[in-house]
Amino acid sequence: MKHENFLKENNARHFWHPMAHPSEMLENPPMIISKAENVEVQNIDGHVMLDAVGGLWNVNLGYSCEPIKNAIIEQINLMPYCNTFRGITNDKAIELSYKLKEWFSSDGMEKVFFTQGGSDSIDTAMRLVRQYWKVRGKIDKIKFIALSKGYHGTHYGGASLCGDPRFRRNYEPGVPGIFHIPTPYTYRNPFDEENPEKLSKKCIQSLEALIASQGSDTIAAFVMEPVIGSAGVIVPHENFMKQVRNICDKNDILLIADEVICAFGRTGEWTGSRLWGVKPDVMTIAKALTGGYFPMGATLLSGEISEAIEKNDNTLGLLGHGYTNSGNPVGAAAALAALEETNKLNLASNAKARGAELILGLNKLKNKHEIIGDVRGKGLMAAVEIVEDPISKKPAGKDTVAKIFQAICDEGVLLRASGNNFIISPSLIINKDHVNKITTAMDKGFSII
């Protein structure tokens, strides 16, 4: 490793960081993480912190999962790369496709298209959905509807689906034919409605009105995260996704479930769709697929979609789409090992139990600290929204967020600050003591204000 002084001197000088203003990173250089073990990370100064971010929603099995490491090393030594374009494939990709078919059979998924990550998976879903409707002869069905608070990656298709202008305005115009409806977010919504069931109904009415105005014969799919992640862990009413499914069925519209964050147990169920009792037509996965040990994702398709494309007898069925690392053998080996460990440790069950403890602890903090406006979560994905005062709900300022963030880090816990939200998404192997450490550190952090 380069000398510490070299790293600190060159921090952010030559490296543009995602989701940050370059000038801000130069003025306030990022924390340099140099080591990770189990569920902890260590910065370059030797300060150890419990990683309550779980990498970036993806390190579900922690940083010391030997079976994944060994699988990667073994595959690198055997064959580090093999493409899966027409006429060639590899054994690990075949095996992983079979395992994923088994894993997601309860969600109605039949086919797998391998990608390099979540953004790839969303854009793949959009392309394949448009292709499906062309194969079906419904060439006008090209539009997409998404939630105003949804996050779907940073490629042009997925970023256009994002409701938050932070991910769109500097790069617009985006992909045409994309529309948004209000998110069932009880703390902030255009209806000023705090009742989850009533709010859900109003959002559904907005969806119905939008479909009527655009014409159902022009809409390809509705896209949603079962639990909205990056916008601040917004948990919809338990019937919301079911109602969306029903409306899609009535109007011949496909449902794409963005499971990039939710899949593999984070919500307390194996998928977010299963949490709400819904079978989508398409699912996108990534992040925890390999436990964060290798960049890989996939788009999963129902039997109806895959059968229509497979039985096509002209060029409309050709998959003119793919990535250099689609089905990469090292990634596939990592994913196979991660799936086995995820199942063996029953991470969904642990996420459910630890998540309940986490939400209980966070609500206690809300009752204690006036700066906390709202607490939300499901399983081991949670958010604490901080405000200047609880009446106006005015978001806390950047300086306040930064002070609290640093105080929590000093107490040995690393959270993610996003706007005026603190997002908590630790590895799914954490125990009760880890939960207590998170809430104790946050308590001390909020106490400085």
Properties at a glance:
four-stranded mixed sheet; alpha/beta; Aspartate Aminotransferase, domain 1; seven-stranded mixed sheet; single chain; Aspartate Aminotransferase, domain 2; globular
Alpha plus pi helix count: 15
Mean of pLDDT: 96
Q: Which CATH C-level class of the largest domain is it?
A: Alpha Beta
Sheet with the most strands: spatial strand order: 4-10-9-8-7-5-6
Helix/strand class: alpha/beta
Q: Give helix and strand order, one letter per element, not per position.
A: HHEEEHHHEHEHEHEHEHEEHHHEEHEEEH
Count of extended strands: 15
Please outline the major beta sheet: 7 strands, mixed
Strand content: 15-25%
* The CATH architecture of the largest domain: 3-Layer(aba) Sandwich
CATH superfamily of the largest domain: Type I PLP-dependent aspartate aminotransferase-like (Major domain)
How many discrete domains? 2
Whole-number radius of gyration?
Answer: 22 Å
3D shape: globular
| CATH fold label of the largest domain | Aspartate Aminotransferase, domain 2
| Alpha-carbon distance between the two ends | 38 Å
- Any low-confidence stretches, pLDDT <50, length ≥5? none
**Approximate helicity band:** 25-40%
